[in-house]
Request: fold
Amino acid sequence: MNNITLGKYIPLNSFVHKLDPRTKIIAMMILLIAIFIPAGFVGYGIIGIFLLISLISSKLSFSFVWKSFKPSLFMLVFLLIINMFIIKTGDVWLTIGSFNLYSGAVIQTVYIVLRLLLMIVITTMLTATTKPLDLTMGLEDLLSPLAKLNVPTHDIAMMISLALRFIPTLLEEAQRILKAQASRGVDMESGSFKEKIQAILSLIVPLFVSSFQKADDLADAMEARGYVVGAKRVRYKKLKFTFFDFITLVSVSGLLVGLILLKVL
Amino acid sequence: MSIHFEKVDYIYSPNSVFEFQALEDVSLDINMGKITAIIGATGSGKTTLVQHLNGLLLPSKGFLTVNDFTIKADEKPKNIKELRKQVGLVFQFAEYQLFEETLIKDVSFGPKNFGVKEKEAEMIAARALVTVGIDPKDFVKSPLELSGGQKRRVAIAGILAMSPSILVLDEPTAGLDPQGAKSMMELFKMLNKEKGITILIVTHNMEHVLEYCDEVVVLEKGQVIMHTDKKQFFKNDKYMEKASIDPPIIIAFKKKCEEYGVTFDSDILTIDNLVSEIVKKRGKR
Reply:
């Protein structure tokens, strides 16, 4: 459980950490678009090198990113198997009995793996190098044009940041309850199907109860500190767009344009 | 029957930025049949220490033996269920682990996990609930209908129903009113005296240590810096000052008297003894 890296902020002092959260959000979106430009292996290679450089400059460890990627491995194997049976384009690479393995199937799967890997690296980099609060501020700023259309941008941003804020808390709580129930003889790994259902119930029910309690407490604490839904708020911390942000955005946009050109030409 | 720690280290999230050494070179022998208090500042490793006792945490280095079980690094002890049956561990704010629709069902959950049949488990549960002072009328109530203190009692009953020979309590009285806390401690004393259960209590309450415990283990920054019997511990008030432990009121009173030149025997640890000593001293004058 401790190894879950989803949305975890890693406090380090790096170039990427210091970037404006708005820059990082926009850069993430541009990169995500870039991944879906079908520029073939050359394109993915270029994005990969770019991400490798950013990953090194963010000082995050590779094992951290790998841990984020691990949970999706199962899904990828599943995809590979489905693809092998469904896709029948390209050359036949392998024949076992009446089953033919086409090159298209393998290439398609490799594409999906690459895309997913790149996407995970990008999103992990965003959440690992940006404090949840900064992330919210950035989101709110970026959404602010929508406020003119009466979209409750602040509320949306607040909801997102609270959700992010509570991921580690809920994990911790789940771990605590798991341990408490393990002390009462719950065995999550072995046992019959019925026992397993019971074991899961013994985790879910207390987790639900305490989440609702926490939500109530949080609402009270926010109100006690003068939070009013929909009220206009001012900020203590201002976001600053620096020269480095400019460089980052230019290079990311350059990457996107380059990939489009590569595809068109 | 024994509890023995041998050079136990525990490190949280090793090889990451969150790496934290919670226990360092802990060697410790707990005397069976006694009530041992485990004290120390927040973050000194108390909870980490007790979670080793039933194999929830495995040492990063070193090992410990509990009864016939050996718990060492990187290897889950065989038959860990049996270990958890023998070592009942009550968590901090244990009331959050309740999940069944009725008290009796929740308390019988433990025994059922250890293979006791439903009917028998409910009988054991009923007995455990009576032991902790729950009214049989309330057995079919939902845990959510109870007060915080009662919920805590039910959670403790859930552990007692497994009839452990070692009971480990992590801050069992945190957040309870003084009356509730007192009767909780009385319950533990009773369990220790009548059933001979070895009890380890993690606590911040020095009054409880003075009144109910036999031995004291002091942790500081993950290391055991003292393990001694209660009398010795409270004699050493210089140490208490250093570790910024607030002495129990009776110790503070004796100390103040000493400042004015009235000294008492250091063995006097109860109000009754103290009062009779004062009366005796007055008589002499």
Remarks:
- The longest strand of chain B covers residues 20-30.
- The CA atoms of residues 217 and 227 of chain B lie 4 Å apart.
